[in-house]
Amino acid sequence: MTTARTATGHGAGQPRARPTQQERSDATVEDLLAAARALFATAGYATTSLDAVCERAGVTKGALYHHFSGKKQLFAAVYAREQERLNERITAAYRTVTDPWGAVLEGCRAYLEASLDPGVQRITLLDAPGALGWEAMRDLDDNCRELTRRGVARAIRKGALPDRPADPLTSLLYGGLSESAMAIARAGDPRAALDDALTDLRRLFDALAAGS
Question: CA angle 175-118-193, nearest 5°?
Protein backbone atom coordinates (compact mmCIF):
# COMPACT_ATOMS: atom_id res chain seq x y z
CA MET A 1 0.00 0.00 0.00
CA THR A 2 1.30 3.42 -0.86
CA THR A 3 1.33 6.17 1.70
CA ALA A 4 0.24 9.73 1.12
CA ARG A 5 2.98 12.29 0.72
CA THR A 6 3.51 14.81 3.45
CA ALA A 7 2.47 18.41 3.06
CA THR A 8 6.02 19.28 2.11
CA GLY A 9 6.19 16.74 -0.72
CA HIS A 10 5.55 17.22 -4.41
CA GLY A 11 2.76 14.76 -5.05
CA ALA A 12 0.39 14.93 -7.98
CA GLY A 13 -1.99 17.81 -7.80
CA GLN A 14 0.04 19.82 -5.35
CA PRO A 15 0.92 23.38 -6.37
CA ARG A 16 4.51 23.99 -7.34
CA ALA A 17 6.58 26.05 -4.94
CA ARG A 18 6.75 29.71 -5.78
CA PRO A 19 10.11 30.98 -7.07
CA THR A 20 12.32 32.38 -4.35
CA GLN A 21 13.33 36.01 -4.34
CA GLN A 22 16.80 35.00 -5.56
CA GLU A 23 15.31 32.97 -8.41
CA ARG A 24 13.14 35.91 -9.45
CA SER A 25 16.13 38.22 -9.27
CA ASP A 26 18.25 35.86 -11.35
CA ALA A 27 15.47 35.54 -13.93
CA THR A 28 15.22 39.33 -14.20
CA VAL A 29 18.96 39.60 -14.80
CA GLU A 30 18.78 36.93 -17.50
CA ASP A 31 15.87 38.71 -19.20
CA LEU A 32 17.77 42.01 -19.14
CA LEU A 33 20.97 40.47 -20.52
CA ALA A 34 19.10 38.69 -23.30
CA ALA A 35 17.23 41.85 -24.28
CA ALA A 36 20.36 43.99 -24.10
CA ARG A 37 22.39 41.51 -26.14
CA ALA A 38 19.78 41.50 -28.91
CA LEU A 39 19.65 45.30 -29.05
CA PHE A 40 23.40 45.91 -28.71
CA ALA A 41 24.02 43.36 -31.48
CA THR A 42 21.66 45.05 -33.92
CA ALA A 43 21.39 48.73 -33.00
CA GLY A 44 24.78 49.11 -31.32
CA TYR A 45 25.80 50.51 -27.97
CA ALA A 46 25.38 54.20 -28.75
CA THR A 47 21.88 53.87 -30.21
CA THR A 48 20.43 51.41 -27.69
CA SER A 49 18.46 53.06 -24.88
CA LEU A 50 17.73 51.62 -21.46
CA ASP A 51 14.03 52.24 -22.11
CA ALA A 52 14.25 49.95 -25.14
CA VAL A 53 16.03 47.27 -23.12
CA CYS A 54 13.39 47.41 -20.38
CA GLU A 55 10.55 47.25 -22.87
CA ARG A 56 12.05 44.24 -24.62
CA ALA A 57 12.80 42.49 -21.32
CA GLY A 58 9.37 43.28 -19.89
CA VAL A 59 10.71 44.88 -16.73
CA THR A 60 10.61 48.32 -15.19
CA LYS A 61 13.49 50.73 -15.30
CA GLY A 62 13.66 50.50 -11.52
CA ALA A 63 14.26 46.77 -11.83
CA LEU A 64 17.10 47.43 -14.24
CA TYR A 65 18.73 49.95 -11.91
CA HIS A 66 18.39 47.48 -9.06
CA HIS A 67 20.88 45.22 -10.89
CA PHE A 68 22.91 47.60 -13.05
CA SER A 69 24.12 51.14 -12.41
CA GLY A 70 23.53 52.16 -16.01
CA LYS A 71 24.08 51.32 -19.65
CA LYS A 72 27.85 50.94 -19.38
CA GLN A 73 27.62 48.32 -16.62
CA LEU A 74 24.87 46.50 -18.52
CA PHE A 75 27.01 46.47 -21.67
CA ALA A 76 29.98 45.23 -19.64
CA ALA A 77 27.90 42.29 -18.43
CA VAL A 78 26.80 41.51 -22.00
CA TYR A 79 30.40 41.74 -23.20
CA ALA A 80 31.55 39.40 -20.43
CA ARG A 81 28.92 36.88 -21.54
CA GLU A 82 30.13 37.16 -25.13
CA GLN A 83 33.67 36.46 -23.99
CA GLU A 84 32.47 33.40 -22.10
CA ARG A 85 30.74 32.06 -25.21
CA LEU A 86 33.75 32.76 -27.39
CA ASN A 87 36.06 31.18 -24.85
CA GLU A 88 33.97 28.02 -24.76
CA ARG A 89 34.07 27.81 -28.55
CA ILE A 90 37.81 28.50 -28.75
CA THR A 91 38.64 26.07 -25.94
CA ALA A 92 36.58 23.31 -27.54
CA ALA A 93 38.45 23.79 -30.84
CA TYR A 94 41.81 24.00 -29.06
CA ARG A 95 41.24 20.63 -27.38
CA THR A 96 40.63 18.81 -30.64
CA VAL A 97 44.36 18.85 -31.47
CA THR A 98 47.20 17.36 -29.43
CA ASP A 99 50.02 19.39 -31.02
CA PRO A 100 50.27 22.54 -28.86
CA TRP A 101 50.91 24.94 -31.76
CA GLY A 102 48.31 23.28 -33.97
CA ALA A 103 45.88 23.64 -31.06
CA VAL A 104 46.47 27.41 -31.02
CA LEU A 105 45.75 27.47 -34.75
CA GLU A 106 42.44 25.69 -34.21
CA GLY A 107 41.54 28.16 -31.48
CA CYS A 108 42.32 31.04 -33.83
CA ARG A 109 40.20 29.40 -36.51
CA ALA A 110 37.26 29.22 -34.10
CA TYR A 111 37.70 32.90 -33.22
CA LEU A 112 37.61 33.93 -36.87
CA GLU A 113 34.64 31.71 -37.63
CA ALA A 114 32.74 33.43 -34.82
CA SER A 115 33.13 36.72 -36.68
CA LEU A 116 30.58 35.46 -39.20
CA ASP A 117 28.02 36.38 -36.54
CA PRO A 118 27.42 40.14 -36.95
CA GLY A 119 26.35 40.43 -33.32
CA VAL A 120 29.65 39.03 -32.06
CA GLN A 121 31.54 41.41 -34.30
CA ARG A 122 29.44 44.43 -33.28
CA ILE A 123 29.64 43.84 -29.53
CA THR A 124 33.17 42.51 -29.09
CA LEU A 125 35.12 44.31 -31.81
CA LEU A 126 33.34 47.51 -32.77
CA ASP A 127 31.61 48.77 -29.63
CA ALA A 128 33.50 47.31 -26.68
CA PRO A 129 36.74 49.34 -27.10
CA GLY A 130 34.85 52.64 -27.08
CA ALA A 131 32.24 51.70 -24.50
CA LEU A 132 34.54 49.97 -22.02
CA GLY A 133 38.13 50.79 -22.96
CA TRP A 134 40.94 48.33 -23.63
CA GLU A 135 42.01 48.09 -19.99
CA ALA A 136 38.54 47.06 -18.82
CA MET A 137 38.33 44.54 -21.64
CA ARG A 138 41.65 43.00 -20.67
CA ASP A 139 40.79 42.91 -16.97
CA LEU A 140 38.54 39.92 -17.61
CA ASP A 141 40.40 36.81 -16.45
CA ASP A 142 39.43 34.73 -19.48
CA ASN A 143 39.29 37.19 -22.36
CA CYS A 144 40.24 35.97 -25.83
CA ARG A 145 43.64 37.65 -25.73
CA GLU A 146 44.48 35.83 -22.50
CA LEU A 147 43.47 32.51 -24.07
CA THR A 148 45.82 33.27 -26.97
CA ARG A 149 48.66 34.09 -24.57
CA ARG A 150 48.20 30.86 -22.65
CA GLY A 151 48.23 28.85 -25.87
CA VAL A 152 51.35 30.58 -27.16
CA ALA A 153 53.15 30.17 -23.83
CA ARG A 154 52.29 26.46 -23.72
CA ALA A 155 53.50 25.94 -27.29
CA ILE A 156 56.82 27.56 -26.37
CA ARG A 157 57.17 25.45 -23.21
CA LYS A 158 56.45 22.27 -25.17
CA GLY A 159 59.06 23.13 -27.82
CA ALA A 160 56.52 23.53 -30.63
CA LEU A 161 57.86 27.07 -31.14
CA PRO A 162 61.41 28.38 -30.85
CA ASP A 163 62.05 29.89 -27.42
CA ARG A 164 60.86 33.49 -27.23
CA PRO A 165 58.79 35.79 -24.96
CA ALA A 166 55.10 34.95 -25.28
CA ASP A 167 53.61 38.44 -24.92
CA PRO A 168 54.93 40.11 -28.12
CA LEU A 169 53.78 37.21 -30.29
CA THR A 170 50.44 37.17 -28.47
CA SER A 171 49.88 40.85 -29.24
CA LEU A 172 50.75 40.36 -32.90
CA LEU A 173 48.48 37.34 -33.25
CA TYR A 174 45.53 38.76 -31.36
CA GLY A 175 45.75 42.15 -33.06
CA GLY A 176 45.86 40.50 -36.47
CA LEU A 177 42.98 38.19 -35.59
CA SER A 178 40.84 41.11 -34.44
CA GLU A 179 41.47 43.04 -37.66
CA SER A 180 40.80 39.93 -39.73
CA ALA A 181 37.56 39.29 -37.85
CA MET A 182 36.31 42.80 -38.64
CA ALA A 183 37.33 42.46 -42.29
CA ILE A 184 35.47 39.15 -42.55
CA ALA A 185 32.32 40.57 -41.01
CA ARG A 186 32.35 43.57 -43.38
CA ALA A 187 33.20 41.63 -46.54
CA GLY A 188 30.70 41.24 -49.36
CA ASP A 189 31.31 37.48 -49.15
CA PRO A 190 32.22 36.78 -45.51
CA ARG A 191 32.69 33.04 -46.07
CA ALA A 192 35.20 33.62 -48.89
CA ALA A 193 37.00 36.22 -46.77
CA LEU A 194 37.19 33.71 -43.93
CA ASP A 195 38.67 31.05 -46.20
CA ASP A 196 41.34 33.50 -47.45
CA ALA A 197 42.20 34.55 -43.89
CA LEU A 198 42.51 30.94 -42.75
CA THR A 199 44.82 30.11 -45.66
CA ASP A 200 47.22 32.91 -44.70
CA LEU A 201 46.87 32.07 -41.02
CA ARG A 202 48.07 28.53 -41.73
CA ARG A 203 51.08 29.89 -43.65
CA LEU A 204 51.92 32.21 -40.77
CA PHE A 205 51.72 29.42 -38.21
CA ASP A 206 53.91 27.15 -40.35
CA ALA A 207 56.52 29.90 -40.73
CA LEU A 208 56.60 30.65 -37.00
CA ALA A 209 56.97 27.01 -36.13
CA ALA A 210 59.90 26.73 -38.53
CA GLY A 211 61.61 29.64 -36.81
CA SER A 212 61.33 32.02 -39.76
Answer: 60
Reply yes or no on whether the pLDDT at 10 is more than 60: no
pLDDT in tens, 11-20: 555 666 777 8
pLDDT at 142: 63
Give the chain's domains with CATH numbers: 21-68 (1.10.10.60), 76-209 (1.10.357.10)
**According to the 3-state scheme, what is the secondary structure of the chain?**
CCCCCCCCCCCCCCCCCCCCHHHHHHHHHHHHHHHHHHHHHHCCCCCCCHHHHHHHHCCCHHHHHHHCCCHHHHHHHHHHHHHHHHHHHHHHHHCCCCCHHHHHHHHHHHHHHHCCCHHHHHHHHHHHHHHHCHHHHHCCCCCHHHHHHHHHHHHHHCCCCCCCCHHHHHHHHHHHHHHHHHHHHHCCCHHHHHHHHHHHHHHHHHHHHCCC
